[in-house]
Specification:
The chain has 940 residues and is of the alpha/beta class. The protein has 25 helices and 21 strands. Strand 9 and strand 10 form a beta hairpin. Helix 2 runs parallel beside helix 4. The longest helix is centred in the N-terminal third of the chain and has 36 residues. The chain is globular.
Amino acid sequence: MTQDFSGQNLRGRNFKGQDFTGANFSYADIRGANFTDSILIGANFSHAKAGLPSQWKFLLLAFSLIVAFFAGFAAAVGGAFVGSFLATKYEKFFTYPGIFYFIACIGFISLLVFKEVKSVFTLSMGIAFTFVLVLTFSFGLSIEVAEPVGFALVLILILAFIFALALALTFAEVVAEKFTFAVTLTLCGSAIGLLLVTFGPKFADVRAGAAIGMLFGTYSVTFISTYISWRAKAEDMRFLWLKNLAVEYAAIKGTYFQGSDLTHANFTKATLNNTDFSNANLTRAWFNKAQKLDRAKADNTILAKPLIRDLLVTGNGAGKSYLGANLKGANLIGSDLNSANLKGANISEANFQAANLEAANLTLTEAIGTDFTSAQMTGASLEAWNIKSNTNLDNVDCRYIYLLESSKPGTDDRERRPNSGEFAPGEFTKLFQEVLTTVDLIFRNGVDWKAFIPAFQQVQVENEDTELTIQSIENKGDGVVVVRVSVPPDTNKEKIHREFTQNYEIALKAIEEKYQAKLESKDEQITVYRQQLEDSRQREIQQSSNMEKIIDILAKPALNVPVNESEVQAIAEGPTAVNLVILTLISGDFETGFPFVIAQIWTEDERLPTQHPGELPPAPYLVDFYHLWHSQYNRFIEVEKKAARMQKNIIQVTNASEFTIDKLAEELEEKLNKWLNAEQFRLIDRILREKLNRYDEVQVIIQSENIDVRRLPWHLWDFFKAYRKAEIALSSPFYDRPLRTAVTRDRIRILSILGDSKGINLNEDLQLLTQLDAETSFLVKPNRQQLDEQLWDEKGWDILCFSGHSSSEMDSSTGYIYINDTDKLSIPDLKNALSTAIERGLQIAIFNSCDGLGLANQLAQLHIPQIIVFREPVPDVVAQEFLKNFLTAFASGKSFYLAVREARERLQSLENHFPCASWLPVICQNPAEVPPTWRSLQNP
C-alpha cells in the first residue's frame, strides 16, 4: 500500500535507507529530514518544504551576520592602521618586503578571482601561504623592515576579510535571503570602527591619514565584498565557487537526499533551499516550478549546472545552447526547446513528452531510452543522433526534419526528409524505426571497395553473434556514398560503426602501402605510377554499381516485430433494484480538505435514510492535475480539429495527443481514488458496500457548491467498478420540489431546439428525435421570442432537448446556449418561461452541447428534476452517439440512470479517436424528484 505523508510535519525525521516507493510527501514539512540512500521511486514531494530547521537557520544566519559585522569593524580599524603608516613612514613601503608583499597580493587576488576555489580549506591555505611567504622573506632583515612587514600583514588581513565577508554575505543570502541586512550590519561595524579611530589615542597624531585609510579599508571590504557576493549570487562563473561554498555548508543540517533513488519523483512547486541532492539518482525527477533550487547542493547530478537546473525548473530553453550538456534522465515534459542547440548532448533516458523541439539541433545527441512521445520536432536537425529500440517516438508531431546539421559545400542541401511536402501521420516514426535497426556508414570521398569488403567481413567475424547485412547502398552525389547496414534492435551501433571505421582505415593503409611499394621499386617510373595509382583508385570508386559479389556475400533477409493488441471484456447484467445515496460535502475545499462529509443512504426496503459522517483530506494536487488534463484535452479538441459543439475560444496550451491525454487520464483516476481511499473517508465507503447489493440499481448524488468537486470525473471512483448498475449525478445542496399544474397529455411531448450549427451536423439529432414514439416540435435556429413562446405552451413539455453550441464561464457559474447564428442566451434570460414549463411537467432537460456545467448550475436554481449535460467540449460524433444510445435505452424501458450509464459507457468505443469520451455526459439531479421512466412520462 502506498504510504501517505501528505501535509505532515516531518521536520528532523530520519528515513535513511528506507523504501518509500510511490509515497506521498506532498505539502509535507521535511526540513532537516534525512532521506540518505532511501528508495523514493515515484515519490510525490510536490509543494513540500525542505531545507534547514528553524533553529539551525537562525544559528547559521546569526553566525554569518556576526562575521559581517566584525569584518566591517576590522576593515575600518585595519584601514586606519594602514593610513597612519603611510602618513608617517610611506618610504619604508618601498623596501624589499613591501615590494614583495605587493606582488604576492596581486597574485593572490588573481588566484581567487580567476581560479575556482572548491573549499574553505583551499581558501584558508591560500591566505596562510601568503602570510608565510611574507614572514619568511622578512626574517633576518634589520628591525627597520619590521613595520613594513606589519603593514603588509594588515593589508593581507584586509584582503582576507574581503573574501570572508563576501562568503558571509553569500551565506546570509543562501540561508535566509538576508543579503541586504548583512550588508547593513557590515556598514554598522565600520561605523563603530570609525568612532574608535576618531577618539582613539593611537591615531591622535595622524587622524587625517587614519581616516583616509579607514575609508579605503571600508570601501575595500564592504563594497568589493558586496560586489563579489552579488556576482556569486547571480552565478557569475568567476565567483560561482563562493556560492557553492555557502550552499555546501548551509546544507549540512538541511534536508538530505544524498545517494537516494529519486527516479520519477515529483518536486513540482516544492521549496528546496539548503537541500542536499549529492549523488542522488534524479532520472526523470520532475522539478517543474520548484522554488529556491539554486540554493540546493547538487554535486554529481544534472542540477549542478545552473543552465540545466533553470531549464528543469522553468521548462524554457528556447534558443539557448546546451552544447555537449549532460541532460541524461532529465524530465522535460512540455518544455519549450524551440531552436535550442543540443548538439552532442546526452539526453538518454530523458522525458521530452509534448516538448517543443522544433528547429532544435539534435546532431550527435545520445538519445537512448529517451521518450519523445507527442513531441514537436518539425525542422529539427538529426544528423548522427544515436537512438535505439527503447527510444520512444510515438505520436511525434513532425512535418519535416533535416539529416544534416549544415548544408553540403556549395549548396543549401541539408538532406531534408521528406524531400518535398510533409510527413503523413506516422511517417516520421516509421522512418526512424528503420534507423533504430540500421547503422549508416558514410563515405564522403567515395568508397574503396577493395578496402570495404575485408573491413566489413572482419566486423562480421568480430561480432559473430550479431546478424549484420547490407540493406542499401545510396550514391548521394559529390562523392558521398551511404552504405546502410541492418542490425538487430539491441545492437551497440556505436561499437559496430567504430570497429568498421578502424578496419576500413587499416585496409586503406595496406592498399596505399602496396601502391607505394610499386612506386619505390622504379624511381624512373615514379610519375607514371602515381598517375596509375590515382587512375586505378578512381576506377574502383566508380564501380559502386557492381555489387553482385558484395550482395552474395553479405545480404540476408530482415526481421519483423509483432505488435500486441488489447483485449475487450464483456460486462454481465444482473437484476435491478432502486437505491439512493446522497453524498454531501458540506464545507471546505481542496486546499484545507472537507472536514464534514455526510452520506445519506436509502435502500429499497427503507423509506428513511441512514446517515454516516466522514471527511476528505486536503488534495490540492488533485485540482492541479485535473486542470492539466483539462488543458491538454481542450488543446486536443482544437489541434486535432475535432468538430465540437462549442463557440468560445479554447485555452492555448502545449501540444497534446490521445496518448498524452490517456496517460493523464490514468493518473487522474489514480489520484482521485487515492483521495477517496483516504482513512478519513474509508468508513463511508465500507458502509456503502455493506448496505448496497452489487447487483442493485444505485443512484449516487454528489452535493457540493465547490466547482472543483463538480468538475471531477466521479464515475471513475472504484466503487462504480464493483457496482455496475450505479450511476453518478451532481446536485446543489439547496433544492426543492417545484409546484405542479395538472396538465393532461396523450403522448410524451418533446421540445427540440436546434441552435447554431456552425461546423457541426444537427440533422443527426433531428433524425433521432423524429424516430421516437412522441410528439416532437422542432425549433430550428429560433429567435428569443419564438423560443419563449414555445416554452410557455399550455400543453407543457416532458423533455427539452437543445442541440448546438454552448459554453460556460471559467467558474461554471453561468452558461450560454447559442440559439442561432448571432444570439446567445443564459438561463436567467428564459427564467419565467422555463419555470412555467417546469410547473407544467417538464421533467428532463438534455443539453447535447459543450461545456454545460454552467447551464446545469443555473437550471438547478429553478428546481428542474433532471438535467443531462456534457462537462467538457464534446466532439460532434460523440454528442450524436450519446443521444442515440440514451434515447434508445430510455425508450426501451430502462431507468433514467441506467440509460445514461449505458449510453455513457458505450462512448468508450470512440476513445481511440476521441479520448475520454465516456467522461463527458453527467446527470444533474434534483434530489426532491424521482427520476422518471419513459412509461411514467407516457402515463403521468
